[in-house]
């Protein structure tokens, strides 16, 4: 999170490539199998995208598709938010399509909660130290994964379809 501007091998801003494009591609490559498995097993399938409350702090214009390889105007936190906004929009679109096709698979995006990780390693010493003090209050793994695990296993009545769990 909040990395300096870098490009992936595919010439896409690295946070967007890592946090969204790879997951988008994997989900789409598996989609036909997910649909067939849900139908054959007669059990509800699940697709869970891990997002973040940070999506609210994306760029003002939303996802900057035309600037995914352009360093001008780059803001590391907004770029992170942009990648997480893309995860939410992707889950919403998948959910819409599956519902329209009457496929028993739900798609959700989940904020995992505040988890103490090394996501702030690209900050300056002073800012990083402040975040480290603040992180003491955050969940530690494995408790940090509980939100998306709950979304993965909870019954339909225990969760909200097409919801962002924040």
UniProtKB/TrEMBL annotation:
<dbReference type="InterPro" id="IPR002347">
    <property type="entry name" value="SDR_fam"/>
</dbReference>
<protein>
    <recommendedName>
        <fullName>Short-chain dehydrogenase TIC 32, chloroplastic-like</fullName>
    </recommendedName>
</protein>
<dbReference type="InterPro" id="IPR055280">
    <property type="entry name" value="TIC32"/>
</dbReference>
<dbReference type="InterPro" id="IPR036291">
    <property type="entry name" value="NAD(P)-bd_dom_sf"/>
</dbReference>
């Amino acid at each position: 999170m909040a990395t300096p501007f870098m490009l992936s091998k595919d010439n896409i801003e690295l946070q967007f490539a890592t946090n969204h494009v790879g997951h988008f591609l994997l989900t789409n490559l598996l989609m036909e199998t997910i649909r067939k498995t849900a139908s054959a097993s007669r059990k509800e399938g699940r697709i869970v995208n891990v997002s973040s409350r940070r999506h609210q702090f994306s760029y003002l214009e939303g996802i900057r598709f035309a600037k995914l390889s352009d360093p001008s105007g780059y803001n590391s936190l907004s770029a992170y938010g942009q990648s997480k906004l893309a995860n939410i929009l992707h889950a919403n679109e998948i959910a819409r399509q599956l519902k329209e096709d009457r496929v028993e698979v739900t798609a959700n995006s989940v904020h995992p909660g505040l988890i103490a990780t090394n996501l702030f390693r690209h900050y300056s010493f002073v800012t990083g130290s402040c975040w480290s003090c603040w992180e003491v209050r955050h969940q530690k793994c494995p408790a940090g994964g509980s939100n998306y695990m709950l979304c993965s296993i909870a019954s339909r009545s225990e969760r909200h379809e097409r919801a962002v769990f924040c």
